[in-house]
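Why does this matter for the project? Reviewers at the last site visit asked to see concrete outputs rather than summary tables. In response, this paragraph embeds two records directly. Each consists of the residue sequence and, immediately after it, the corresponding structure tokens. Nothing has been edited or filtered.
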Amino acid sequence: MVTRMMIDTAIAALARHRPGVTDWHVAVGAALERALAAAWVPCAERMPEDCVEVLVAVWPSVYIAEREDGEWWAVDRMPSAIGGVTHWMPLPAPPKEPARGHPPGG
């Protein structure tokens, strides 16, 4: 897994090869941060905040779920407890605009 320290080390190494150029390493750092945020996180490493919807992996399936009081709950019409969650990741951001020909909320 990529860590923040690995990102900082890579940016510092790039900066040493291109002294005086600052804008590109900010953009590279931001791109790496987005990639890091979108990566699967092992549950053994850390857990998401309570009551925040995330994607979870229960081999071989993926669900939208949230964690509350140490329990995982699948987010569906009727929430149900799930076990065997090994990894989680933040949900992606929604599209910035609706698909052409589809009104918002429709």
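We now turn to the second protein, recorded in exactly the same manner.
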Amino acid sequence: MREIEDVGETALSHSEVRALATGDPRILEKARVDTKLTRLERLERSHGRIQRVLSGTITNAETHLPKLAAERNAATRQSPAASTSPETASA
């Protein structure tokens, strides 16, 4: 899953530019806080999405692992080469 990186702290939002134009430091601070809040909300949503994807991956793996282990065991029992491992063959 791809994530978009923030363009950085040097870029000003539209509201920050307007706040600078007013000359009121309180408006500028509010614009900065709003921008930071928006960024944090995006990060929270992204984190939630990633957690759901990972949870699904884990659930899928837990579902398939027993079947894969059984297939591996069956293949190991059927293979004559499996009974002579490299450790015992060289002894």
